[in-house]
Amino acid sequence: MVINPTYLAQRSRSSVNWEDAKRRVLHSYRQWLRSAPEIQQMYSLNKPVSELRTKMRTEFERHRFVSQLPVVDVLLFNSHTEYQETLNYWKQLPHVLKYFRADEDPTAKLPQNFMQGFLEGRN
Question: How far lies 33's CA from each of 4, 5, 59, 64, 73, in Å?
Fold first, then answer.
């Protein structure tokens, strides 16, 4: 297998207006949904494709009410970076499964403050 680091590479850019940002977000969302079966097969996940797509949707819905255009651009850049790393198989299985940890383990939440996390032994 030949490694091509420029596979799925895009130049980073800023959105011109809200319509452009919306178009870019929908494009990114559709890319993620279309790649769900490939991600499931590539990482040998024991989860159905529908659950992967639901998780992808919740990740996009988390940022639904962002009201600043530069923040949307940064989120789009991060989304595409995650997408490229996932489909190029630059991630390992634990990196992909971290998105499902909170669903499977109800105690897997972030500590309320630094000291609590430090005393629990979290880094």
Answer: 23, 22, 12, 17, 20
Measured between alpha carbons, how far is 86 from 52 in angstroms, rounded to an integer? Answer: 13
Task: Give the integer Cα–Cα distance in Å for 87 and 72.
Answer: 22
pTM (global) more than 0.85 = no
Residue 24: which of 96, 73, 57 has the closest Cα?
A: 73
CB 66 within 8 A of CB 21: no
> What pLDDT does residue 106 have?
66
Place of tokens 């977000």: 25
Best CA proximity match to 101, nearest among 110, 111, 114, 90: 110
